[in-house]
Amino acid sequence: MISSSTVVNAVVDKLRKALARGQWRSGDMLPGQRELAEQLGISRPSLREAVTVLETLGLVRALPGKGVLVLDAEAAAQEPAADSAAPASLADVLELRYTLEPFIVGLVAQSANSQDIGQLRLTLMDMREAQEAGDNDAGAKAYIAFHEALFALTTNPIFQSVVQQTGNALKQSAGMLRNSPEHLAARLKENEAVVRAIRDRNSAQASAQMRQHILAEGQRMGIHLNVPDEHPGP
């Protein structure tokens, strides 16, 4: 089930306002997922996505097995800057990834050493273990860790700044990654193909595999990406 980005953005706004008026203070724990979702009249997947956004903003922290800790209730009262970007939709996130990640993995394929490739393979092992255990939360975390490890291998300082935003956007869409085991298996297979191309130092193949992966991610989320035609007619 795919949660509407409009719903998630509305929930983020409600929770920020609740924090701003002191309903929960720094150091407090938010109510449990079931209780809070019922209070807000939303599904738990939508709530989890909203919490991920708040975590990215530094307002809360999800503590496994404990709940969600409020970090900075005062910051929630600050209005976003007038020139700040509008909240990104899932399609926006995927378009950004499609633009950047194939180029990045192409560069990584040219420069990665055995230690770099070993680190990437470790994150894939975490994904495989999560898949075999049927642990979709762990699978989502391992998937994000894999892409963050890829981002970390770029040495261009401007890229470092941009991919940090990409990493944050990926975390915002993490709720969409906690779905069926079949999807986790597909992600693992696609990411393994990317790493094989990097290991073979095949830059073009690594880029192509990443493009295919992101397009497949869109299909799994029910999103059709409008991408440029790379093979235009005469």
Rg for CA atoms: 19 Å
| Share in β-strands | under 5%
Largest sheet: 2 strands, antiparallel
Uncertain spans: 80-86
Q: Which word captures the global form?
A: elongated
Number of strands: 2
Helix/strand-derived class? Answer: mainly alpha
Strand order of the largest sheet: 1-2
End-to-end Cα distance: 41 Å
Number of helices: 9
H/E element sequence: HHHEEHHHHHH
Helix coverage percent: 55-70%
Note down, in words, how this protein is organized.
There is one protein chain. The chain has 234 residues and is mainly α. It contains 9 helices and 2 strands, in the order H-H-H-E-E-H-H-H-H-H-H. It has a two-stranded antiparallel sheet. Strand 1 (60-63) and strand 2 (67-70) form a beta hairpin.
Brief account:
With 234 residues, the protein is mainly alpha-helical. It has helices spanning 5-20, 33-40, 44-56, 90-111, 114-133, 136-152, 157-172, 181-199, 203-220; strands spanning 60-63, 67-70. 64% of the residues lie in helices and 3% in strands.
Write the topology of this structure.
Layout: H1 5-20, H2 33-40, H3 44-56, E1 60-63, E2 67-70, H4 90-111, H5 114-133, H6 136-152, H7 157-172, H8 181-199, H9 203-220
Antiparallel strand pairs: 1-2
Defining traits:
234 residues, mainly alpha, two-stranded antiparallel sheet, 9 helices, 2 strands, 3% strand, elongated
